[in-house]
Design brief:
It comes from Halorubrum lipolyticum DSM 21995. By secondary structure, the chain is of the alpha/beta class. It starts with a strand and ends with a helix. The protein is built from 15 helices and 17 strands. The strands form two sheets. Strands 1, 2, 3, 4, 5, 14, 15, 16 and 17 form a nine-stranded mixed β-sheet that branches. The structure holds zinc ion (ZN).
């Protein structure tokens, strides 16, 4: 048995029974959190000194396309309908070779780990089974906990999007699941559905039925950008043909334009929502769904989404998403001719949306999301002895408002240290770097994207 002890840290457990503890220890055995307390025995344990550090559960990014990492920095001035669909889905994605899936996924996963995200839902467009296999290899080699999401192939936008009547490639999906994913403790599978916005009703229902048959999560891009007018001919149709199929195994990415009534219904059915606030603000998706989900009594989760555009750092998303919602809520009060005397969403709320709520959305809350004995040790240590973070008067606020990835000293996934003293431990960061850069250059070259 391997034992590790995170010693003498300020533990923000996010577990209501444990709460926040100062100068506390977290004991880990074979990757499992077994105790949170004071002065725990260090016998036969590797000691990780957490004095002057805040220990939080690893972030959960509930929506990101990791394979776009080597084309990062191209979409920062793009809108969804103006450039993104044409250039990304209609061009670049089709040029990916299996090795590009590997390199993008690998360095996307490295960015996740470096910035404190220990679990991500990786929404993938695998052109062939081999593309999917290499994307999974990347997640495994990086050591990220992940929900690999098999979406429609990226090689033919006309075939797989718009009014597509072609179901997801079932044979490939089953083979990937039986092969690489089955016995991997850190990986699970989801299906990336087009949903009624992007395929025929029969196809949308068929894909969801396939996910149910496999017993895996369905995640769907819905209710963003010009929707519903361009998609539904001007008539609002809410969840359309899948309305009677909603459940806790359905995750909606974006969902900007759903009515409050439909969000109420979906939350009641256990549907989770992934808001990707920075990308949505930029690209014309519409107002993030955050407020409607909260109004319905649910809690949204955060995602980065398009890392060809914005940084993969989840800290930015939890801050932007929260501040934007505060702005809308404050404005509503002001328009009622009253003073704003309290904020609507707290720093702790947004930290929970970035951790345990993401875990719930991915069906992983029994395993991760809080620092609780019995859960896996996915932990992040923030340094408070830095001139930019000291003095720490409120650990939650220091994490949410003052910290950036440079203050993340140590990251553990499943009890394994993946970042130590501010550096990733994986030798592939250096070994694969040149191939990663070359992959991005080739893709943009062949796509003829002139920036
Ligand atoms: Zn997306």
């Amino acid at each position: 048995m391997t034992r590790k002890i995170i010693q003498n840290g300020t533990v923000v457990s996010l577990d209501p029974d444990i709460g926040d503890r100062e100068e506390a220890d977290v004991l880990i055995e074979d990757g499992e959190i077994v105790d949170v307390g004071h002065g725990l025995s260090t016998e036969n344990a590797e000691v990780i000194d957490a004095s002057g550090k805040i220990v939080v559960p690893g972030f959960v990014d509930s929506h990101i396309h990791l394979a776009q990492t080597q084309v990062r920095g191209i979409a920062g001035d793009w809108s969804l309908m103006g450039e993104y669909f044409d250039h990304m889905l209609g061009n670049i994605t089709g040029l990916y070779r299996p090795e590009d899936m590997y390199l993008g996924g690998l360095f996307g996963a490295f960015e996740k780990l470096y910035t404190g995200t220990t679990t991500a839902l990786d929404w993938s467009y695998p052109n062939t089974l081999e593309h999917g296999e290499r994307a999974v290899d990347a997640l495994q080699d990086a050591g990220l906990r992940a929900v690999y999401t098999y979406g429609p192939p990226g090689d033919d936008a006309a075939k797989w999007w718009y009014e597509s009547d072609v179901g997801l490639p079932e044979e490939n999906i089953r083979e990937l699941r039986q092969g690489k994913i089955r016995d991997d403790d850190l990986l699970s599978l989801a299906l990336g559905l087009r949903g009624p916005d992007f395929c025929t009703d029969e196809t949308a229902r068929g894909d969801l039925e396939l996910a149910r048959d496999l017993g895996v999560l369905s995640t769907i891009h819905m209710g963003a950008a010009l929707w519903p007018s361009s998609v539904y001919g001007g008539d609002y149709q809410g969840f359309g043909c899948i309305e009677d199929m909603l459940g806790p195994d359905v995750n909606v990415a974006h969902g900007n334009h759903f009515s409050q009534e439909d969000i109420d219904h979906a939350v009641e059915q256990g549907v989770s929502f992934s808001s990707t606030p920075e990308v949505e603000m930029q690209m014309g998706h519409g107002i993030p769904v955050t407020g409607k989900v909260l109004e319905a009594g649910g809690r949204p989760t955060w995602g980065v989404d398009v890392c060809s555009n914005v940084s993969g750092d989840m800290g930015s998303q939890m801050r932007i998403g929260m501040q934007l919602q505060r702005m809308f809520d404050n404005q509503a009060v002001l328009e009622g001719d009253e003073e704003v005397t309290a904020v609507s969403v707290t720093a702790r709320d947004t930290l929970e949306m970035a951790t345990i709520e993401g875990a719930k959305a991915l069906g992983l809350d029994d395993e991760i999301g809080t620092i609780t004995p019995g859960k896996r040790a996915d932990l992040v240590l923030f340094d408070t002895n830095d001139f930019m973070t000291a003095p720490c008067h409120s650990p939650v606020q220091t994490v949410v408002f003052q910290s950036d990835p440079s203050h993340i000293d140590t990251v553990l996934v499943d009890g394994e240290v993946v970042k130590r003293d501010g550096e990733l431990t994986n030798p592939k960061v250096d070994e694969e770097f040149d191939r990663f850069v070359a992959s991005g250059e080739r893709l943009l070259d062949e796509a003829g994207i002139d920036l």
